[in-house]
Amino acid sequence: MIREYFRTKKLFNFIALFLILFLGACSSTYYGAMEKVGIHKRDILVDRVESARDSQSEAQEQFKTALEQFESVVKLQETDLKKAYDKTNKEYERSEEAAQKVSARVKKVESVAEALFEEWQDELEQYQNSDLQRASRRQLSDTRQRYKTMLRSMLNAEKSMAPVLRIFKDNVLFLKHNLNAQAIGSLRSEFSELQKEITQLISKMNEAIESSNTFIAELQ
What we know:
By secondary structure, the protein is mostly helical. The protein folds into 2 domains: 1-39; 41-219, Four Helix Bundle (Hemerythrin (Met), subunit A). It has 6 helices and no strands. It has helices at residues 2-24, 27-36, 41-74, 81-123, 130-177, 181-219. The model is unreliable at 1-17 (pLDDT under 50).
């Protein structure tokens, strides 16, 4: 009986996942299906902004961890660099995954925002009351402006990840190709640059997170 329950549950989860992926392939179909169950574009936008914000927070922590690992390597006095390389490379890969996650979620925010504003603009023509129409038009304009401010912060934070990953990858490769004390000496000179880039990245992510929280509060 228990086994049958879990088998049924697995089948249900698979079907649900398939529907999400299938409907997600066509945004208009997906949004239409969600609206039928009471979840509107505004709700989806809030949810996706929250997801993007959370992925930025996670990326922040990952880049901090990666910097700590890099710092531990440049402080090494021993020659056991193979293990150090493995750990550092793993942190680089995790940082890259975190960056990709942020980018994917920002794109999802852009997608639903465009759909929401397009629908809102079209629906303005349905008003019979001109005063309500003007009020709604103003609200649309204000919301669009707040969204642009938030998106600008998100994109600035996203853009700041590229130089960090580039510096990190170069140094991971250098460590891989030069597993000796000389490699550590070379990496020490790069540490301050990486630290500066990550500090700037974290600052921009904080701005994006704060902007996201403001936008969510105003939209709700």
